Amino acid sequence: MSMTQTKSAAYSRVSVFELLKGYIILMKPRIAALLLFTAYAAAIVAADGFPSPRISLALLFGLGLSAGGAAAINMWYDRDIDAVMARTQNRPLPTGLIPARNALAFGIVLQLASLVIILEYLNPLTAVLSFAGFLYYTVVYTMWLKRRTPQNIVIGGGAGAFPPLVGWAAVTGDLSLAAIFMFLIIFFWTPSHFWALALYKNDEYTKAGVPMMPVVRGPRATKVQCVIYAVILGIVAVSLGLTTALNAFYLAAAVIISVWFLLVNIQLYREPDHKLTWAKRTFIASLIHLPAIFTVMVMSVFIR
Fold it and tell me: Is the dihedral of CA 161, 166, 169, 170 positive or negative?
């Protein structure tokens, strides 16, 4: 093989690797991992232990494909604003690595595959809930709410809250009050999570024309609402502990985690609006809060 051929072969390998990496990025794997974690935690609570291997694999693989497909369509639709914002301008569509039509087709194929797997190995309710979450994120949030209202995150938060319902239904074939509380935990967690990010990325959202709460109402009003939602979140998280699905261990842990997160949001409120230290800390705290709550749910199943 000549030197030119060797370089060409090496370039092809790099190009294929970068292309595969681009498609993985389209699926937003870090977000998908959190969604799958909350779904499987709910499944463990519903099963009062680990679900069967068949249910576990079908749930994780089927919901993972659905979440990845929704993320790909989100990136397809938002490619114009992603190109403007510094934190998203290196995504595969703004850089031209993946054509827009390919990203759309990829997202649709993933969702169709998800439906086939869930219908074959789980049950119709799980398929309906998974598909509803897909539509909620791609149509209701991405295409309708995100660019039209500062309540985009509040109403759109339902999209990320579907996985516990999916996990519960995968095991039981129905829903319960505990599953609904899990949905509400994620729903009321979402505002503080995204608004904290929006506070210190305010210039980027302003430039992109996305009406996030800090852009439209300003940092002070945003911080007030963060505290309010942290209070509601705490009430919901503690209320879950009063159901028969979980025990006193979860209840005690939920109180501690909820009080801590509320105090973080109060610190955010107290910080002068021109400073961003607690905005970043609140965002990081939110990334700890949700896994912590769902982790203690799982622990409560095995601690009697």
Answer: negative
Position 8 in a domain: no
Average pLDDT over residues 138-143: 92
Residue at 14: amino acid letter = V
Q: What is the pTM of this model?
A: 0.91
Alpha carbon of 267 to those of 198, 212, 264: distances in Å?
A: 17, 21, 5
Question: What would the DSSP string read from start to end of 22-50?
Answer: HHHHHT-HHHHHHHHHHHHHHHHHHHTSP
Average pLDDT value for residue range 96-114 = 95
Are 260 and 159 found together in one domain?
no
The residue from 118, 140, 175 where one domain ends is 175
Same domain, 281 and 161: no
Q: Are 180 and 240 in contact (CB under 8 A)?
A: no
Residue 75 CA to residue 171 CA, distance in Å, equals 31
Contact 55, 43 (CB under 8 A): yes
Q: Are 62 and 122 in contact (CB under 8 A)?
A: yes
**Position 209 confidence tier, pLDDT thresholds 50, 70, 90:** confident
Query: Do 63 and 153 sit in the same domain of this protein?
Result: yes
Residue 177 has pLDDT above 80, yes or no: yes
The residue written with tokens 């794997």 in the block is 29
32 to 39, 56, 97, 264: CA distances (angstroms): 10, 16, 22, 26
